[in-house]
């Protein structure tokens, strides 16, 4: 749920922002762009961020996974670069026909920017799927809001603690007993496979869009 909802909301909102700052007639486009780019290099820090999340009432809430990362600045730049590469005549024709900005965005811009949206969707989905630290910070006391990555992290941490607490005699006995020993390394390898399978299954369907979106975005950037 976190990956699906978070990806859909983030990509849609980021695309709306990218379309806004790509418009030449928007007088604040440079200021807004620089304001967002500034956040890529400087942040308030962990403690102010936690205090902000607490004041917003997002602790022990599902929406703490969605709202803080609703806009990705790098993703916005990728989509904006793609939109700027679209023929101006298409957007001007829509405006002449009486379409507003939102109608133009929904009916024209979004269908034409599918490669960029697919690329950004993959970025966001992987980030949402792999994230566990925000679960630890904000929802660790609520088992209903836990995620797979956080549970796997706890298992690995428990195995590391158990391995470190074993004495040399215990390790020698387990090695001589003829039974397989579960080590933190084997658990880490298993976790990697479990966590990677869903993304590996999705990637083949997005590969052609991913390559095209990265190529066009990179050339325009």
Task: Please specify the SSE layout and strand pairing.
Blueprint: H1 2-22, H2 29-41, H3 46-55, H4 73-84, H5 88-96, H6 101-112, H7 114-130, H8 133-138, H9 148-165, H10 168-176, H11 184-220
Helix pairs in contact: 1-4, 1-7, 4-7, 4-11, 5-6, 7-11, 9-11
Give a nutshell description of this structure.
The protein has helices spanning 2-22, 29-41, 46-55, 73-84, 88-96, 101-112, 114-130, 133-138, 148-165, 168-176, 184-220. It has 221 residues and is mostly helical. It is a multi-pass membrane protein.
What share of the residues lie within helices? over 70%
Q: Tell me the structural class.
A: mainly alpha
Distance between the termini: 33 Å
Q: What is the CATH topology?
A: MetI-like fold
Please give the CATH class. Answer: Mainly Alpha
How many beta-strand segments?
Answer: 0
Low-confidence stretches: 217-221
Q: CATH superfamily name? A: MetI-like
Largest sheet: none
What is the strand content? under 5%
Overall pLDDT: 82
* Level-2 CATH architecture: Orthogonal Bundle
Overall 3D form:
elongated
């Amino acid at each position: 749920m976190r990956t699906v909802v978070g990806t859909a909301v983030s990509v849609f909102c980021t695309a709306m922002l990218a379309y806004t700052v790509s418009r030449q007639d928007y007088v604040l486009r440079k200021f807004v762009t620089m304001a967002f780019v500034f956040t890529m290099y400087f942040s308030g820090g962990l403690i102010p961020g936690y205090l902000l999340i607490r004041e917003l009432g997002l602790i022990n809430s599902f929406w703490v996974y969605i709202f803080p990362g609703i806009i990705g600045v790098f993703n916005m730049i990728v989509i904006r670069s793609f939109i700027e590469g679209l023929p101006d005549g298409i957007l001007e024709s829509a405006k002449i026909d009486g379409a507003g900005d939102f109608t133009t965005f929904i009916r024209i811009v979004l269908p034409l920017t599918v490669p960029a949206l697919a690329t950004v969707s993959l970025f966001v989905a992987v980030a949402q799927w792999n994230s566990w630290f925000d679960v630890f910070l904000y929802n660790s006391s609520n088992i209903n809001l836990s995620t797979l990555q956080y549970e796997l992290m706890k298992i690995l941490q428990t195995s590391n603690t158990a391995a470190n607490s074993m004495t040399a005699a215990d390790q020698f006995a387990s090695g001589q007993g003829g039974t397989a020993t579960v080590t933190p390394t084997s658990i880490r390898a298993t976790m990697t496979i479990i966590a990677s399978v869903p993304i590996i299954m999705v990637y083949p369907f997005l590969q052609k869009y991913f390559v095209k979106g990265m190529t066009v975005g990179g050339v325009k950037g």
